Amino acid sequence: MLIVPEELPDGGGAFLIAWQLTGKRVLVVGGGEVSSGRIRNVLIADALVTLIAPADSLHPSTRFFVDHSDRVTYHSRLFAGQDDLEDVDMVLTAIDDVEESRRICSLCRERRIPVNAADIPPLCDFYFGSQVRRGPLQVLISTNGNGPKLANIIKTKIEAALPSNVGRAVENVGVLRSKLREIAPGTGGDVSKRRMQWMSKVCTSWTLDELADMDAAKMDELLSVGWPENRTLARSSHKNDSTKNLCGFLASGRLRSASCGFAIGVCVTLAMSKKEQHGRRSPSEWLEHASKARLA
Amino acid sequence: MLIVPEELPDGGGAFLIAWQLTGKRVLVVGGGEVSSGRIRNVLIADALVTLIAPADSLHPSTRFFVDHSDRVTYHSRLFAGQDDLEDVDMVLTAIDDVEESRRICSLCRERRIPVNAADIPPLCDFYFGSQVRRGPLQVLISTNGNGPKLANIIKTKIEAALPSNVGRAVENVGVLRSKLREIAPGTGGDVSKRRMQWMSKVCTSWTLDELADMDAAKMDELLSVGWPENRTLARSSHKNDSTKNLCGFLASGRLRSASCGFAIGVCVTLAMSKKEQHGRRSPSEWLEHASKARLA
């Protein structure tokens, strides 16, 4: 089925991407707290970091990375000029000197080196946002400069919505994919399409919990039995759903609400029954009376 | 308070960023369905698109963008070589010819033009992921190549967790920020820090609903009264919370659960009361009897 868009998308956004930095050299200029956050994020992406900042300006977190990561090369001095940009793939500045930031950015632009200058949006090739990480799963939340604090609040909501084992599920699906590529190799064409369709079926017919719990034996069974027969060996999704619903109910506040309701129902009826003993009206008579009164 | 990391972050991830494409030229090579998705995403970021693809290979969605967007310049032909890379800021290829993709990527690399080749991860400077957009809010979900389908499933969970008016809240906070910058201008230093702190206080003391409902009058009041006095004019958060809790309770399935519980409580007690009429035991006597039995 072809889905043709009926309208052009609204503009005003950014192009959200997962930049690859494995083995790439990132120059960080400045050693304060902001800079330490930048270093942390590029280390997550396996970059090689060159840090240029006077030693007396280093934030303790930045100092920690200098002391403990063999991926960080440190020079205790100020940015010296174009020689510092030799063999550099990306530049992040986090210094208070706006004019110096401008100069660094313009040198980068001449060399087509992607650059971000902290707190000077117009100079930046790219912005950051709030991030969530769960193993191989990464989520970026960008408000496009409208509110960094709000990005953080939204991040908290997203973190709460992600199952605790979601990282493990992503990891296992990745392992299954590589194993599948080993037994059914080839780029492009039919085999690639069939692999994609089967993986997609596995991901939709297994729950995230089941994917997270998948062990090597289960993977082997899936690959040796499921793949050739184009089946996903998923447990009956129906049974699964009812178990899930029951668990969800027991874990939710709804059981508590039902119990409270029950207790109130008992108390109200007992109270009515006491009244009956005094007022000569049984609960059923009372209900009858009440409905008559309503009809009247 | 200084927070010093106690360990280095785990590597193996990517560097998630919001790339700025306003007025930048993006070359898209190939006109199929994948390509139409790429065009959509760069149009969101206000890019100028050059599309190179033979007319008979265009997917209807790609054709739609060619026909309806004045930001898309279309050439019905194959990629011709380095002249096509003149003044180009980013290249996205989505063609079946792996060798041609390789050649384009290597030309880009020589010119330091960021490039993504669909389905050939090792050639890419950056990857895509699933995306959520709500006005100025954008969320990128990346599984770092472990499972695109899973990214989609996680995207659905995130979409469900975001309040429907979150985009409006982000928009309003952005407007408030610009207005604040007008009445308290200046880059860096104390004023910038004070602005940031106050905006942060507003974002945390107002709920997302309240931020979304903020109108021009409320903004003006906040800026003319709240800002000078360093107050956020938020409604009492306590009262607010109880209202919210009540609303949440009424909207949730918990009211239904409580009602069911109440009804069952009434029925059970009435049934016991009927039994009493026959068996000469009132509900209270019955309860007494039951507790005696338990004690025995």
From TrEMBL, chains A, B:
Gene3D superfamilies associated with the record: NAD(P)-binding Rossmann-like Domain (3.40.50.720), Siroheme synthase, domain 2 (3.30.160.110), Siroheme synthase, domain 3 (1.10.3280.10)
Residue ranges of domain Siroheme synthase central in the record: 134-160
Origin superkingdom: Eukaryota
Pathway: Porphyrin-containing compound metabolism; siroheme biosynthesis; sirohydrochlorin from precorrin-2: step 1/1
Domain spans labelled Siroheme biosynthesis protein Met8 C-terminal: 163-231
SUPFAM superfamilies hit by this protein: NAD(P)-binding Rossmann-fold domains, Siroheme synthase middle domains-like
EC numbers: 1.3.1.76
UniProt keyword annotations, A-Z: NAD, Oxidoreductase, Porphyrin biosynthesis
Gene Ontology biological process terms in this record: siroheme biosynthetic process
NCBIfam families: cysG_Nterm (TIGR01470)
Name the UniProt record assigns to this protein: precorrin-2 dehydrogenase
